[in-house]
Specification:
Distance between the termini: 32 Å
Largest sheet: 5 strands, mixed
Order of helices and strands: HHHEEHEEEHHH
Structural class: alpha/beta
Shape: globular
Number of strands: 5
Oligomer: single chain
Radius of gyration: 18 Å
Amino acid sequence: MDRAQAALEKTAYFEAASLASEGLMRARGADDFARMARICMPLLEARRQIRQSAEEGGRVVLVRSEKDVPRPVDAGCYLLQPPMIGLDGRRLREIAFEHGVSVFVLVREPLTNDGRWPIVGVGDLVTRARIAPPEPLEVVKGTPTRDGWDKAPDLSWFVAAGEALGDAAIADAERAAEDDPPAYLVDDLLERLGGAPHHEKLHQRLERACREAADEPVPTTPRRRPIVYDPYSF
């Protein structure tokens, strides 16, 4: 945690994010929820700086296949669409992170029958938010996207989509942990954090859950979660 804070102070945001993320998981392994709460804010700040740097160009790159990704990867916002999948978005973000390149990556799935786009984030669990596309679309059968969309959305839509994904992650976690000890809400939030690392409110909700967990005994009852059937998950 101290090293992460020092990296943050010298604006080494990728180093700070990596150290804070590692510290967060080590603290969870030790049931040190108070320290987890203190780590959440440096992690949030490092990831905020990375996200804001990605947004600075003001444009979104549409990725329909791997050939649409610049080599080497440029800083910026990327919207992946079918036949690309959620795992491709996660890999792109990880590759960029390894090279110290600021990217903000979202992945959308085929148009639903009610005219929405599922926005998907892949962490330890998969999170989806179903939102309106940039403009009304009709189903076009026989295409990977089911709508024939072939242009990049504007940045305001992209940012709003990212917010919706993070909000869905919080709601999913709170629903899963309803009536459970705060420590298990911490775990539910952690499982979704990797799918929406750009989302500030998700980090803030995790920090609050950690503080609540620190005020209670470590639970001894098993953490039980139903098997999730999702044919589009991993």
